[in-house]
């Protein structure tokens, strides 16, 4: 395993997937900074603030729901 860059059990494409996300994010930031257009492929490749807030709402709801007795599901706040 001396030549492996990732832990055992992860496919080699695992690290390339993250590289692609970070590359497209950096390209988008650079384009917006320079008032340039971004390709639709780069814009749709990573989550924004809205998706992040929704994800955190989901996690907070799951944690709160796990603390309740006999409740199977709690609706997410929109």
From TrEMBL:
It comes from the Eukaryota. This is Gfo/Idh/MocA-like oxidoreductase C-terminal domain-containing protein. It comes from Rotaria magnacalcarata.
């Amino acid at each position: 395993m001396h030549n492996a860059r990732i832990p055992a059990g992860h496919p080699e494409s695992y690290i390339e997937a993250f590289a692609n996300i970070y590359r497209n994010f950096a390209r988008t930031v650079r384009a917006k900074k320079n008032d340039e257009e971004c390709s639709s492929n780069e814009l749709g490749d990573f989550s924004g603030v809205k998706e992040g807030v929704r994800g955190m709402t989901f996690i907070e709801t799951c944690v709160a729901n796990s603390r309740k007795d006999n409740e199977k599901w709690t609706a997410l706040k929109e």
